[in-house]
Amino acid sequence: MHGVGGDSKSSHAIPTDRRHPPTLAIAAPEFKKFRDHTLTIPRPPDHLSRTSKAWWRKVHDGYDLDEHHRHLLRLACESLDQSEEARAAISEHGAVVLDRFGCQKPSPWVDIQHKAQNRFRILCRELGLDVQPGEGPRMPRDATYGSRR
Questions:
Q1: For the chain, what is the radius of gyration of the CA atoms?
Q2: With CB atoms 3.0 to 4.6 Å apart as the test, which of 9, 60, 97, 133 could cross-link to 41 if both were Cys?
Q3: At what angle do helices 108-127 and 67-93 cross, to 10 degrees?
């Protein structure tokens, strides 16, 4: 091997073996399930409902969350609140409304509830709250998914 600048005695040698190129060791971020109880739990945002604030504390008590995870948790709590608000409106006004022609159509609250529940589910999965220890990632669906052969 030749060193930088043609000096063969240099300690900064450039590898010439192309069969085994150098690899970069990149550490994957770790999401720790159990938090260090010496840390304080951040206060939940004031605009959240009592139920969402309790869930915020429960998640923070069981997991070490980075700053970007806290933003995802806030969005999940807001989605939970929005879903509950829509559920209450559906209970009060019904799931079906009449349009201007007198025809029945789904209440807009049904769509709001569905989207909020879907967002909540996706955010929980993104945070890793739906994975039990020992479970791996889900297998992708292929042509044989659901077949009974």
A1: 26
A2: 60
A3: 150
Give CA 106 to chain center in angstroms: 30
Burial of 20 (0-12, 13-18, 19+ CB in 10 A): exposed
Q: Which of 72, 114, 80, 73 is nearest to 95 (CA)?
A: 114
Nearest partner of 4 among 13, 125, 123, 26, judged by Cα: 13
Q: pTM surpassing 0.85?
A: no
Backbone angles phi, psi at 86, to 5 degrees: -65, -40
**Helix, strand or coil, per DSSP, at residue 13:** strand
Length of the chain: 149
Segment 19-48, tens digit of pLDDT: 555 554 444 444 455 555 556 788 999 999
* Contact predicate 80/59, CB 8 Å: no
Backbone angles phi, psi at 115, to 5 degrees: -65, -40
What's the confidence (pLDDT) of residue 27? 47
